[in-house]
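Researcher: Quick one. two chains, 691 residues in total.
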Amino acid sequence: MAGAYPWLEEIRLKRMVVSDESLEIIAKSFKNFKVLVLSSCEGFTTEGLAAIAANCRNLRELDLRESEVEDLSGRWLSDFPDSYTSLESLNISCLGNEVNLLALERLVSRCPNLKTLRLNRAVPLDRLPNLLRGAPQLAELGTGAYTSEMRPDVFSNLAEAFAGCKQLKTLSGFWDALPSYLPAVYPICSQLTSLNLSYATVQSPDLIKLVSLCEKLQKLWVLDYIEDDGLEILAASCKDLRELRVFPSDPFGLEPNVALTEQGLVSVSEGCPKLQSVLYFCRQMSNAALNTIARNRPNMTRFRLCIIEPRSPDYLTLQPLDDGFGAIVEHCKDLRRLSLSGLLTDRVFEYIGTYGKKLEMLSVAFAGDSDLGLHHVLSGCDNLRKLEIRDCPFGDKALLANAAKLETMRSLWMSSCSVSFGACKVLGQKMPRLNVEVMDESGPPDSRPESSPVEKLYVYRTVAGPRLDMPGFVWTMDDDSALRIS
Amino acid sequence: MDAADIKNLKATELRLGLPGTHLEENNVIITEEKSSLSSTTPVLNNNKRPLQEETSPANNKDCGSKCSNNNTDDDAAPPPSKAKIVGWPPIRSYRKNSLQEQSEAAGGIYVKVSMDGAPYLRKIDLKVYGGYPQLLKALENMFKLTIGEYSEKEGYKGSDYAPTYEDKDGDWMLVGDVPWDMFVTSCKRLRIMKGYEARGLGCAV
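Model:
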């Protein structure tokens, strides 16, 4: 690439392995390099970052969101030369160790166009005011650890610094948040449009106080500590809310640890007319609630519900949740993304195939009774691009009968289903424009009978043919009658 | 192709296996096998993930335990230890690790909570609560009872339950008398008393 496009300015990678060597090549080969976004990547260390810092004179954006970086030392930040002032966006929230704080302060204050700053947990709260004062033009801030010994001077310093950021619209971070420090952000709540409190383990009353001041809020990510009561207040206070994500504080606990039920989501669907994107983890749901939500919010475009216990029925009637999700797809005519959970039969897939005409992405787990379910989806959802399925009794029939559909989609993932190795081979042989990849940790699939189900199947269309860089437990089913093992 | 055709796959071009062979259908059994397969499968260290909600199997450390395929459970009491399913709930490992780090870093103060008559004890982390009201509400939720409001003079009057705790000296104290921070550092265990015993504690004697 370095040879072919020396003027390359932006590289954005997701879920890829990136080496320090690659980062060094990027740093030295592209003279006008401006944007590096590594989302959920891994394989590099802070040495690679040092190369970027030292060489990319025109860098505007360095975003390492949720990557796994081997953090050797915080020294790399000092490798930005003193003459470097073009930084506009920096996200180092995933780094484990402390960065050189003095270097960070100097960097932040000499870059007048810095709009986004996402710190890592190791940046102590008492250093935040200095950073903010160095960048009063900030629009997006991710704090470091939001805790400190409770001292009035630290608090007032912080509150003053926040108040000085008149353009600040987005807040995140809040690790280890201490409730008594939350009021420091009250002065700017009324200007916030996006708030990510999903790492703040504070209780409902403190969350409510904060959220109720954010009248312009469009996006809220929060832990289920907010509870139904908090969501009711949210519904009453934040009329501009477009996106809500509620994450579980205790996902592996056996019993509910918080009073968050389907009611919270119903309240928000009633009170927030612009709500169109939902991700909600909870422990109980009913068809009635889903019906209400669907009728309240026909403008919903992304609806992802995770009922924590697999195959949970409607807790009121003990029936499957087919009708509830059916109502969602029927009323929300612009629904593009849907994730199902709870007890579901083939009927829900019939609804989805009938009504989900704009649906682009569907996630399914522990649902359905037979191949009919999968067939409904593949034959009915005209705009389906991505389908991911785990632990469902879907097998060969529906897959092979709808093989042509797979060429119109971006990808299909099936794991722990009933798709046989034989069917995968047939699919691979019949559809040369698809990569049919079988993943099996227990050894080559041809060491077992053809009727044996495969662990994981990943099918996607390709113009480049099979990959050649796969690890040993991935096999491509293709034209060659012998399996090609990379 | 409609549903009826599915059942007549032989009518289509696509066949399974060699001509003349048939494939047995044993969906039910396969489902069972599948479930246990999914949980005993060692985690793949790749970045393709089954469910996008928020998951990455790469760092999933929950593997190895058997899946509990418990949709036939009609018992009233939940099993004391439920098996974990690999990759479920679909939470990104970044988030899982982060929350785990937080609870470890904070060094939670876990105390046992017993309730008279309950078959087993619970454990809670006192650090999670900001004060007495949150703690009491959590206890109410956990044990499905009403404790009500504390008053210095009358304790938890009106309730059949009184929350008590054993302090560092080994004495059983009524929850609520001392400042919250003092309580958190001196509480060794909690006990929710019931019945006339409780009323004895609740009333000004």
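The beta strands of chain B are 110-115, 122-125, 161-166, 172-174, 189-194.
Researcher: Thanks, that's what I needed.
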